[in-house]
Design brief:
Blueprint lengths: L17 E4 L3 H13 L4 E5 L7 H18 L3 E3 L4 H7 L11 H21 L3 E4 L9 H12 L6 E2 L4 H4 L2 H11 L10 H21 L5
Parallel strand pairs: 1-2, 1-4, 2-3, 4-5
Helix pairs in contact: 1-2, 1-7, 4-5
Amino acid sequence: MTFVRADTLASPEGGAKILLHACCAPCSGGIMETLEESGFAFTVFYYNPNIDTRAEYEKRKEHNKRFAAKLGVPFVDADYDNDNWRERVKGLENEPERGARCTQCFLMRLERAALYAHENGFPVIATSLGISRWKNLDQVNTCGHTAASRYEGLTFWDCNWRQQVGTDRGLLVTKREGFYRQTYCGCVYSLRESEKRRQKAVKTLATSGQTFR
């Protein structure tokens, strides 16, 4: 299987060092591997205060951290910040997935990435959030540009990772590395939506006489 190499891409600063916000190993793994094998200088920034429990946060973080170490890529753990995240999305608990709650969630995470980049000399930030088919790519990119616009000289790289890296490579890396594959985005509200989809699938299969596994 042939994959697009990152040396066919051009980052906004012509290959300057990049701060890559990573949401989880399955989403970021293919991106990280593509960037690393093509010589891009980048650091992984792990800030995901939306994750519903500390245990879930640590599990996702460790798989991401382990892969960064394997690639020899610096890894920054911005630590767990769920209380502040809940305050940020207060009043939006019943918003649908891809709605206003997700906008605030993306903004909070990318604002922190932009601040770190500004304070530590990174001219470019990017995120793995948009590679997931469950995310609205335009929504993610809008939040990224908004976050980066706060600091002069900082650019958000709105690369379409779905096209340039692809889900196939992400799946291949995930399987090869044995990454933990979560069944929901991370927050308690996405878990609620995931459970609704599961129950719907169970009912659909039950009416057809099949078994859900």
